């Protein structure tokens, strides 16, 4: 309960903040009401399961999360993954996978992996979120148009698209008109004088429900006609059946939920910090623990996977929410709704929820940002973006993220490899007296610019291949080497051993403390003249010239006397 403790210390539970947070919590609860049901249905669950998730997960993240302004619940980003899990393993399997994902998230937080998530490149995130938006958009055609078509759970995107497009001539006119009205209200309700105080999704759902209740249009599917009775309240605590077979079968989906949940929640928390201002910083590792607890507890009370919801968190901040109280009020409001008004949900048309998801899908796709990356990003970023997007849509989200990250890493390493070079310098830039001209014997200076890692070891070896034919001594200038990995270390050691066998004097110049310590650890400094690192070229000149008297007799080799 770190967030609550910090809020108390900051005085955010004082009377003036109390009112603001209660109001913000009520607004967020109203926004979450239709979204929670819509996300649940799209994920293959019942509408009430979405409400259970928003209530339980929202409360847990408020109590145990790493930011005091995060709102958690079911989100659009999960729809594609969860629908596939539900289709393959049933809702009970989805709950088991959610519980396991919660444990993985807790472990990630305890291992302090919260900061690692930020290294996922933006083109990867933009690619898979845009892809998810496209999938959600197409997936809602059936309910939006009232199409008489059956879509297989395992059907690929292109197959679903073809089946839906083929069925379009058979759409339900009243369903489509009601859906179009709903989507217009979602977008423009805030511009209507007496409706601007209410969130657009809620207005759309209420108006569509009222019209369907009054006129009873033929062919318009409702929550009641599809799902039957909507129960009041939250189901009692029920432990899931965890067997070895279940765990083995669902470990992959669980990791997928955990990975996406971690990315989504931390992106939301980061965005919240920016919106809130005032130097607010979330605790990423604690946030993962809080999200993990939420996903462990949610399925025990009829819920499923949840994460930080960017849109609801932004709504919370814009309405004055600045403490966990707002998220708690949001959960209490939804609990009150399901206790008092659950039976009324049976009259909600599915097409109105599909219209809400249309807008969610459009916002998720964020094609403006997608186009901006395509226009202004380097070629590598464009490739990663398009590959991730296409794989998300036509293959699998997990495959898309994995391939996107790996591809981004490979392209980055390629770029580093190209920019990293080993150059022979005739005059050292740090010495205005033309140091190289002061050496009394043949000395070559090599400057290594960039990290010395596995991808450039071959280039390094090629650059130094003929050194023994040219020099009495070699200076390695390493000021521009930020780090060295094991492969780079091995290649460098091999080069120094070769030079040492050829009786060429070796000097190191400008090595940072971390690399120097690594050199000492593997015994590499034993091959270097004076067994140490010089910090100026002038030092090397003076030292080497002091040995030049014996150069002829020793063939460039000097006995060390350290």
Describe this structure in words.
With 562 residues, the chain is mostly helical. It has two domains: 2-153 and 170-367, no CATH class; 421-554, Transcription Regulator spoIIAA (2-Layer Sandwich). 61% of the residues lie in helices and 5% in strands. It contains 23 helices and six strands. The protein has helices at 2-9, 15-42, 47-64, 79-110, 122-139, 141-145, 157-167, 173-188, 200-215, 223-227, 244-276, 284-297, 310-318, 324-340, 350-365, 367-376, 379-394, 397-419, 457-463, 486-501, 513-521, 537-546, 551-554, and strands at residues 72-73, 307-308, 421-425, 443-449, 473-480, 505-509. The strands form two sheets. It has a four-stranded mixed beta sheet. A two-stranded antiparallel sheet has the order 1-2. Strand 4 (443-449), helix 19 (457-463) and strand 5 form a beta-alpha-beta unit. It is elongated, with a radius of gyration of 31 Å.
Q: Evaluate the radius of gyration.
A: 31 Å
Strand content: 5-15%
What structural class results from the helix and strand content? mainly alpha
**Low-confidence segments:** 427-436, 555-562
User: What portion of residues is helical?
Assistant: 55-70%
What profile does the largest beta sheet have?
4 strands, mixed
- The tally of structural domains comes to 2
Strand order of the largest sheet: 3-4-5-6
Please report the number of helical segments.
Answer: 23
Let me know the average pLDDT: 87
Please report the distance between the alpha carbons of the first and last residues. Answer: 58 Å
Shape: elongated
